[in-house]
Fold this protein.
Amino acid sequence: MTELFHRHPANPLLTAADIPVHAASAFNPAATDFDGEILLLVRVEDGRGISALWVARSGDGVTDWRVDARPLLFPVEPYEEWGCEDGRITYVPELGEWVIAYTAYSYLGPAVALARTRDFRSVERLGIVLSPDNKDAALFPHRIDGQWLLLHRPVAGGTGHMWLASSPDLLHWGRSNVLLRARGEVWWDGARIGGGAQPLETPDGWLLLYHGVKQMVSGPVYRVGLALLDRDDPWRAVARTDGWVFAPETPYERAGDVPNVVFPCGAVLRDGEVWMYYGAADSSVCLATARLDELIAAVKRPSPV
Ligand code: BMA
């Protein structure tokens, strides 16, 4: 299989050692452009096992990361008492704000919560917008036909498929329906799937980098695939890769707190390239890049694994 993504030689970019307090792990980063820099929202698990989301900034997106002294999103509300996990950031020009979708974890299970920020110094919580079990949410950057759109991943019918919901106000979500199905049985994305990076708008449609899980005898393997949604009608998936386009291969992806995991939560576009930030083995923050035109060609021309 042709390699679409190229791992950055500086991987892993960040680990628990880069967090200014004692941390167990640093992984699953959301990514966005902010103030001329690349900003990541890194999931940091503490010594108790509870996660918070920390801001890390870098001018070139690779080196000299500056991690804030305290997390941006940490458990405050009862619905997130077991952690704020796996953020996805979307810049929303209409609001002049960034909306963060994250997994709010509590004894109730994982739920989808939203928060908004102008400066990544303070956040306004919008609360739980989709009740448990639900996660892997990401907002589209602008309304379509007057409605906001949110990718999400409820557990329904015994498994996790990717769904899309719409809202007039970011608070009340409805018209929820299945968008992409876990393909079942032996498929690389057979056990369950979920959104990865925030949806990327391209002239060819909305490009999704999603994770797919195959349940092996030894445990799950998390890989990455591509899907393309119609630009004007994202409820219509127009293409999807048959096989994965990125999979755990290196020692830092193969071994860690959870082995055999690559888990993207954010991407930025740079000079015709997609910079995919991902968590490796639930233990570190990594970067892999691909040419956007090659990703579009790959998703439009599914090839055998
Ligand atoms: C998923 C999420 C991710 C995690 C992955 C692999 O269910 O909880 O945060 O990276 O499992 O452990």
Q: What stands out?
A: The chain has one domain: 6-300. Residues 6-300 form a domain with the Tachylectin-2; Chain A fold (CATH 2.115.10.20). The CA atoms of residues 223 and 247 lie 5 Å apart. The chain has two helices and 22 strands.
